[in-house]
Amino acid sequence: MRLDHVSYVTSHDQLADTVQRLGSRLGSTFVDGGIHPRFGTRNFTASLKNGQYIEVVCPLDHPATEQTPWGQAVSKKANEGGGWFTWVFSTKDIAPIAAKFGREATEGHRTRPNGSDLKWKQIGVKEIADTREFPFFIQWLSADHPSQDGTPLAEIEKIVIADNDQLADSWFKEDILASLGDVNIEWVDPSTNDDQSGIVSVHLATPGGVVVLD
After folding, report:
1. How many Cβ atoms from other residues are within 10 Å of residue 115's Cβ?
2. Which SS3 state, helix, strand or coil, does residue 82 take?
3. 56 closest CA partner among 23, 3, 9
4. pTM for this one?
5. Beta-carbon count within 10 A of 110 CB
6. Contact, 92 vs 107, CB < 8 A?
7. According to the model, what pLDDT value does residue 96 have?
8. Which of 9, 122, 136, 140 is the most exposed place for a label (fewest CB within 10 A)?
């Protein structure tokens, strides 16, 4: 298991502005990741060092958006004003994780503007709608990882997460903490984050110094 990417939600109307703002802060360029037809969302991604990336995702005006857990969760966050949404861990074999959840992983894909198709399996999305401090889990079925889309200039140093229990309720707490590499987690009280649990900010080392995206 390894930290794969962090996800930021915005509305469809604000997508271009959000990508521009975050990209200028990072000194990095986001690329169009395409549409998730099964989930009713679309994204832009910016590659980071250590095989990681940032995703900016928005809901679409599409039936799948309100019919799938991912689309519903993204739409709900966008309607709340957007912001940091979740963190995602990848694994080479998602079956043992799915067994803990007691259900099969969901298959997903998105078609890039160049026509290439990314495929994966994911699980844990239903849970992050209400427990946003939890990550979800993914197994890539495609070789071309989104971190390869562009030249990585920044790397994640720290993630600030509001959660009094510090993942105590997660079946995977020890696996998650052991899979962070050099990324530090700072736990803060949800009362400092409008009583909301989840990611508060992400600190990244860039050629121009440390940048805090909140």
Report:
1. 7
2. coil
3. 9
4. 0.94
5. 21
6. no
7. 96
8. 140
Q: Which residues of the chain have pLDDT under 50?
A: none
pLDDT tens-digit readout, 203-214: 999 999 999 999
Give the phi and the psi of residue 56 in degrees, each rounded to 5: -110, 120
| Backbone phi and psi for residue 192, each to the nearest 5 degrees, phi listed first | -85, 0
pLDDT digits (tens, 9 = 90+) for 39-85: 999 999 999 999 999 999 999 988 878 888 999 999 999 999 999 99
pLDDT at 137: 97
Helices (H), 51-93: 69-79
26 vs 126, 157, 196, CA distance in Å? 31, 13, 26
Residue showing tokens 């052991």 = 178
Cβ-contact 89, 1 below 8 angstroms? yes
Instruction: Give the long-range contacts of residues 18-25, CB within 8 A, separation 24 or more.
Output: 18/56, 18/82, 19/44, 19/56, 22/46, 22/54, 22/56, 22/213, 25/211, 25/213
Is there a contact between 132 and 196 (Cβ–Cβ < 8 Å)? Answer: yes
